[in-house]
Amino acid sequence: xxxxxxxxxxxxxxxxxxxxxxxxxxxxxxxxxxxxxxxxxxxxxxxxxxxxxxxxxxxxxxxxxxxxxxxxxxxxxxxxxxxxxxxxxxxxxxxxxxxxxxxxxxxxxxxxxxxxxxxxxxxxxxxxxxxxxxxxxxxxxxxxxxxxxxxxxxxxxxxxxxxxxxxxxxxxxxxxxxxxxxxxxxxxxxxxxxxxxxxxxxxxxxxxxxxxxxxxxxxxxxxxxxxxxxxxxxxxxxxxxxxxxxxxxxxxxxxxxxxxxxxxxxxxxxxxxxxxxxxxxxxxxxxxxxxxxxxxxxxxxxxxxxxxxxxxxxxxxxxxxxxxxxxxxxxxxxxxxxxxxxxxxxxxxxxxxxxxxxxxxxxxxxxxxxxxxxxxxxxxxxxxxxxxxxxxxxxxxxxxxxxxxxxxxxxxxxxxxxxxxxxxxxxxx
Length: 429
Fold this sequence. Notes:
Elements: H1 2-30, E1 42-47, E2 53-57, H2 70-80, E3 86-88, H3 91-95, E4 111-113, H4 114-123, H5 127-138, H6 154-175, H7 197-208, H8 211-217, E5 221-222, E6 233-234, E7 251-259, E8 263-272, E9 275-284, H9 293-308, E10 309-315, E11 320-325, E12 335-340, E13 344-349, E14 359-362, E15 374-382, E16 385-393, H10 401-428
Antiparallel strand pairs: 1-2, 1-9, 3-4, 5-6, 7-8, 8-9, 10-13, 11-12, 12-16, 14-15, 15-16
């Protein structure tokens, strides 16, 4: 009898252990399978399409951004300039750069296109080229401004940089940054020049949506096409360089940074299987074994994102969302298909099943309606994040005179009914 009880107890323990193991396995598979190793002081991993945060560490801590600042300079450049416009390099754009900071080795008096300067700024992290662009953009509305090649114009240069910094801060607020302040276009150390990993991810997301910046930020090297005296500029982003120990095959941008105060920084982007990710690392360093935490933290976070998340299509551009009858439309045009303007994808855990009913809202849908006219919106809410697209008409809807008369009569009747009701209530009182 005792032996039987012992066997039952052992059997119970085995079954319990098995069930408990299954429970743990299910729990692990339902969420991120591993927590990524991040040694740098601050970091964030974000879905580049919708801005969903997938991982964060000290992401709102105010820190120095170093040359990741140049992403904002690139944004203002592409939004304000003709890329083919020619710009003269001024004396202070070159000589205001402190010793030991990276240079593009351009010379006062040389003339380059905006696009050439932007490539040198982003790929070589050239502080002089960033100054040239900032001085130029700050004076676009000042045709009398002279890009001096002598030492006599420091005040004008300083004023230009201050004006450009104001433009940077205004743009940062527009993008949604809450804890960012820029005082120069390149990230040269200043105690009042700061940002956060979260804000820089927003800036990176905004830049990544621009095809020009995305293309430049993905280059591993660059040559000035008309100047053989300059060396080939090699990207400071090791993730992009196929021969480097930290090369990452899915990386496609964007900008590194370093100062003694900021440590090693980066706004990095990568794409795989329909997922676009942005990773920001601030104050990276080298471990005792020589490991660079900026690069390894990026790789760990990217692998974490790609291994544990998937992209789910909610609606595609051109999908018919609903067919409606336009009340006052003509008989042959009143049946109207409305389609989504934007493809909406959400990033969720790999084991998560997305089954959400969208909220569809229509404007006052009455004829006449033009093909392509926005008639409403569709919104999906997944894990607390809203994914929204406008809805447009697929064809013209013409107004029916008969229905217009009926609607007008109905409106008059409704007004009269309100008046009669009001008078009746007043008489009773």
